[in-house]
Each structure stands twice: as C-alpha cells, then as structure tokens.
Amino acid sequence: MNERQREMRSYGLAISGSDSCFYIPQPTSHLHQKTHTRPETQLPLPKTRFFVPERIRVAQTRSQGRNQRWGHGGEHKELTFYELLGIPESGSVTQIKQAYKLLARKYHPDVSPLDRVEENTEKFIRVQEAYETLSDSRRRAMYDRDMARGLHLAFSARRCQYDE
Description:
single chain; 164 residues; mainly alpha; Helix Hairpins; 7 helices; flat
C-alpha cells in the first residue's frame, strides 16, 4: 500500500488516491496521537451552510391557515366553540343543539357543492367538535377552564386524554 492510500484510509477502508476529497482521518486516542497530513494536491473543501428557520409555533400557524380558509383573512385568532356556533358562553344545551343543527345542515359534506366539499368538510368537523364538547357538561367545564387560561387551541389534544 502506498503512502497516499495509507493517508486516505478511513475506518479500515482504503479510498483510492483519486478520491482525495473524501479524506477522513482515523479517530485517535489522546495516548497515540498521530499527525495526519493532507495530500498537497487536495482542493479546499467547500464550506457547508445550514439554513435554520426561525422557530414557528405550530398551533399558531394552523389557526392562521384555518382562519384564512374560514374567511377571516386578516385575523390571527382562533374562533372559540361558542363563536363558531354563534351562541353566548352562557348558552343552554337547547341553544347549542339548535345552532349545531343549522350549521350541520349547511356544512355537511353530503349537501356541499362539489367545488367546496373539502372546505365544508373541515368546517363540519370543527362544528361537530364544538357540539360534542359544549353539549357534555364535563367537557364544557374543562373547555371553559382552558379558555380562561388561554389554552383553547390545545383543547382537542386534552380531549383525547379525557375520553380514554
């Protein structure tokens, strides 16, 4: 084995002399430190640049997208279940059912125009979630507590824990 191949050895594998850009020195312990010399003909390696985007809050991004799809363009706040159903926070179970029936008839995928099925399906799922939450007294109390703390965006995740 010639000197160049010995220099180019990496983890027990010899790399041919023409592949000098793949030179990886063998790991050495502090007891047996060797000085590795790079071949004179090696070109400088290009500098690697990494793009690190700013941290994006997932819930905020999802709510912004949903609000734009619901026609609230400039707003960046998530509709509460009460706002979605169009009832006051003190609304009765009867009011919740009436609002749900109206919106379910409007947004149900089976009655949606073909060009709006996807959009209306998303709205229907959200209306269904609001109805299921607000019509159950325990879920409604938990939702109200979370809203008071400013956590209504995370309610769906908590609901899964409650249901189990």
